[in-house]
Amino acid sequence: MATLRFRALNLVDQRKPVPVASSERRSEIFGRNVFGLEAMRATMSGDYFKKLQSAIKQGTPVERSVADAVAGAMKTWAMSKGATHYTHWFQPLTGATAEKHDSFFDLNSDGRPIENFKGSALVQQEPDASSFPSGGIRNTFEARGYTAWDPTSPAFIIETAGAKTLCIPTIFVAYTGEALDYKAPLLKSLVALERAALPICQYFDKDVQRVTTTLGIEQEYFLVDKALYSARPDLVMTGRTLFGHAPAKGQQLEDHYFGSIPPRVHAFMLEFEEEATKLGIPLRTRHNEVAPHQFECAPTFEDANLAIDHNQLLMDIMDRVADKHDFKVLLHEKPFAGVNGSGKHNNWALSTDTGVNLLSPGRKPKENLQFLAFFINTMKAVHQHADLLRASIASASNDHRLGANEAPPAIMSVFVGSQLSQVLDELERNAKLPLDKGDNLYLKLGIDKIPPILLDNTDRNRTSPFAFTGNKFEFRAVGSSANSSSSMTVLNAIVADQLETFRKEVDALIEGGRKKEMAIIDVLRQYVIDSKAIRFEGNGYSDEWKVEAAGRGLSNVPTTPPALDAFVTEQSSQLFSRLGIYSHVELHARHEILLEDYIKRVQIESRVMGDLAINHIIPTAVAYQNKLVQNVKGLRELGLDDEFTQVTVDSIKEISRRVATIKTTVAEMVDCRKVANKKDDTRERALMYSEKVRPLFDVIRRQVDKLELLVADEDWPLVKYRELLFLH
């Protein structure tokens, strides 16, 4: 292993930036490999093009004749780009994307070769569903599942090793109809949110006919050299370093954040951004993040469904391009202990077909009342369903990041800024003031005091998991490796449910004779009071906040297994069922899948840790200890007394103690796994892995990291943090 380490270090020393030549403007190549509106117009008849656009906008099924026309146009376009195969591109509950390639090549009835792609192949395919997570929905021997075309997300072409494939975004469902993916529930949640938001918009503007959810996903990631990555079995197998002593220099000088981008990294960024641009991903920002060799990219906001498809695609593009540049992208939430983890900040908002951002204050008091209606209802939804929102971001990897002094805590809170806090406080105080004839209710209630642009009127709070940032909410607690569909489906659902409740309460007051504006204000005022506990402007990293949050009645669930319980409460089951997003069966299946995923990931980490500790670390430590023993013997043979040998003897003893602790703790960890694996109940098994197995990781790691400081550098088998984080 030590030989492998030094061979890897030698390779890194010889690396040069990979030349990336591009003379075209981004605006000229944007969407080049996407079957978007322009490609459709160029390859379809006007009549079929209009019918397809109408079906997409109205959410109605695509007619068979239209599907055949689209398939023919898609095939013509894809083949003109050099594509030879097509695939239904879907997002199963593994967390990765999936695809099964079929060739356009076929034989006709006469046995002659042709290129063929029909509407039936476009709209639906039947991949094997038995090998994907189903949470008990499907038996192993029941293989049938269906992928079905999502016409709201355009098809695109991916090139891998010179071969081009037409990728068709689809949902993935069981033979019996239950969703087996992330996309299907997301689409249902978007429909539910629009259905709930539209009547609220029409309180203020009858011309509004559509409400769409927009999303901008910031992506954080680490880059390490491919050779160094390959020399770390823990990185290869788990995505994070299970061992590694902190380097003398980490991020404490704060000199990496927004610093100059290293040449090799810059070349990588140029190429992956260009590839992303060709696929219609509107990347605009790149920069160094806080931790050494951590970076971030961010796109312009898009329709939420498309934004999530693009983010899933982006992670794949980054990985493939990184390989060409001899890098490995690390998307694990906490690949290195003691330095910043990585997140995926989801910037969420709502907009109307009349061009209004519903989370942006307007220039008129009435517009501000509309803004407050959506703003306060979102805040109320987070307060009402904080545990469910926490569950939506729960994973074995994100547990390392949440609350780790550089990421939002596991406690859900909402940051709104000092200015909006004052507006909400004034609304709470003044809403019961008597209104005389001729009074300006907006002025008297403080509603007209909201500036039209809040974007820069308040400082941001990076310690808040759910922060209002001027014209959108930023859900900062989503993990960097996560599919954002999970958290966005929950957020859409809880806001939709809250808006429906709001409408019913306002309509009841109006029917009772209350003026519409005052009915809205009455209900909003009560929501401000009810949800006050969720608002927090201070330091979310502090221990004081944990104490204060407990006093406010806010939950703090730091680990995944108990956090996931929120998915299967009666309240959650009724909410998702009422909105038509998850059935009872689907919800419990997902709970089971997420628990199983947690167990498997911790189990893999435990096995890798045991293997490295017993088969690599201990032999290295013992071999070095033997060198020290020989050194002591030699000194004593020269007649030198304990005054000259004591330091070395102390090192020998310390190595023995630490090796003994590692061996006994690894054995204990293995025994705990065996006990846990005998539990039939998945939740009990997950809890045992969380409460019994995982805490032993820290004990083993502490001893190994101390040995790293004791053993000679030339003997140490694992690539060190200083090498992973600082060698470019």
Automatic annotation (TrEMBL):
Q: What is the lineage of its organism?
A: Bacteria, Pseudomonadati, Bacteroidota, Cytophagia, Cytophagales
Q: Which organism is it from?
A: Solirubrum puertoriconensis
Segment forming the signal sequence: none
Family the UniProt entry places it in: Belongs to the glutamine synthetase family.
Molecular function terms, GO-annotated: glutamine synthetase activity
Instruction: Name all GS catalytic domain ranges.
Output: 182-617
Q: Which domain of life is it from?
A: Bacteria
What Pfam families is this protein classified in?
Gln-synt_C, Gln-synt_C-ter, GSIII_N
Q: Domain GS beta-grasp spans what residues?
A: 84-177
The name this protein carries in UniProt is Glutamine synthetase
One of the GO biological process terms? glutamine biosynthetic process
